[in-house]
Design a protein that fits this description.
- The chain is of the alpha/beta class and 212 residues long.
- Helices cover 24% and strands 24% of the residues.
- It is built from 5 helices and 8 strands, in the order βαβββαβαβαβαβ.
- The longest helix is centred in the middle third of the chain and has 15 residues, at 92-106.
- The protein binds guanosine-5'-triphosphate and magnesium ion.
- Guanosine-5'-triphosphate (GTP) binds next to α1 and β2.
């Protein structure tokens, strides 16, 4: 079956839920107290869609300001980016727009961008309106979704929309797939990419297979 590899990165403020989205997509898991990402983490996921196989190579970047300068390493050469904000945190939306501007300036000209308003399960705490965010995404020609890593709403959907929007070329007839562990993949010379967050009183379990 034809196979297409999609290099994709996630960008957005710390705590908006980038790693949670990836964890939900790749392993269908959710952790209340995920550790803040250090540097970036890498995972892969194989998806069969419309009789084509896509292998997402997912770079989950760290949102903390101290890691900002590392981001170009992950979005350079990326075919797609998911720019994430938190619908319950107003400041995360302009931060997402800053990431879009940086992608427009610095990333590949034909990068497919998806704007994802995460934590849509927390409707009562909403600070960013759907109408405003959707209008913004349409204006920049981006895919728009509201997601919830907690309930899994629109998680699979956003990756599938990206796959559909990418040019239907670059498929290779077959490839060795043994390198890819289903769900996660280790890169040589990588190290743990998660650090403990304060939200569980420092007692959070390390997610040892998210590495970079
Ligand atoms: P950095 O790695 O620091 O950049 O953060 P991040 O964007 O990867 O955020 P992360 O996935 O670690 O999520 C932060 C916290 O937000 C998690 O521990 C969850 O408690 C919470 N969270 C993530 N996604 C959701 C969601 O869809 N709904 C709700 N209610 N909480 C979420
Ligand atoms: Mg993270």
């Amino acid at each position: 079956m034809a196979v297409k590899e999609i290099k994709l990165c996630l960008l957005g403020e710390s705590g908006v839920g980038k790693s949670s989205i990836v964890l939900r997509f790749v392993r269908d898991q959710y952790k209340e107290c995920l550790e803040s990402t250090i540097g970036a983490s890498f995972m892969t996921k194989r998806v069969v869609l419309d009789e084509k196989t896509f292998i997402f190579q997912i770079w989950d970047t760290a949102g903390q300001e101290k890691y900002r300068s590392l981001a170009p390493m992950y979005y350079r050469g990326a075919a797609a980016a998911i720019v994430v904000y938190d619908i319950t945190r107003e400041s995360s939306f302009p931060a997402a727009q800053e990431w879009v501007k940086e992608l427009q300036r610095m990333a590949s000209g034909n990068i497919v961008i998806a704007v994802a308003g995460n934590k849509c399960d927390l409707e009562d705490l909403r600070e960013v309106s759907t109408v405003e965010a959707k209008a913004y995404a349409e204006n920049i020609g981006a895919i728009y979704v509201e997601t919830s890593a907690l309930t899994a709403v629109n998680i699979q959907h956003v990756f599938e929309e990206i796959a559909r929007k990418l040019p239907a070329d670059d498929f290779t007839p077959s490839m060795g797939t043994s390198y890819y562990l289903h769900g996660t993949a280790r890169e040589p010379g990588t190290r743990r990419a998660q650090e403990k967050k304060g939200c569980c009183g420092g007692g959070g379990k390390r997610n040892s297979d998210i590495i970079y």
